[in-house]
Amino acid sequence: MVEDERKDIESKVSKHIHNLKWLKIVGVGSVGSGKTSLIKYFCENKFSPGYQPTVGVDYGFKIETVDDKEVRIHLWDLSGDDDYYDTRIELYGKTDGAFITYDVTSTNSFDSVNFWYNEINRICNPKPVVLLCACKVDQANKRVISKEKGEEWAKQHRMGYFEVSAATGENVFHMYNSLFLTIMKRQLKVA
Q: Fewest CB within 10 angstroms: 20, 62, 77, 173, which?
């Protein structure tokens, strides 16, 4: 009797674990571009105005319902500092999706987008779903990179484009949900 109950429990646990969906997402971009703020806003629904650069890597976790499925989202905030290149390389493995951030108030930040795109494509195999995120759009009076310029870059590289602000929450959840749905649709095609 006890043995039958144990087998029944093991079977249920095994089925549950098999049905769990996990997604690994990495955020990349130049130092100060908004990666950490996007992840914190999504995971904790808060924005911290003071800038603290990521030392190596940071991590966020959230359970979301995507397309009527419970999904465990693992968000890796990879430092944009060159000193952490080796750390980034190690953490790109088995990435399902990535978002490249740039700060709309910084030309240098936008100029680094090619670097991040190339790093992802060189290291990740298979290639993850990638989105381009124009961050800090709430700072319209300081903006130096136009929406059109960002959209054109994303179009040329066949990826989604989102204008986001962790300070106001603008489009943050929309961006993430789009990324998650695109990943899951791709995975269904492969299966």
A: 20
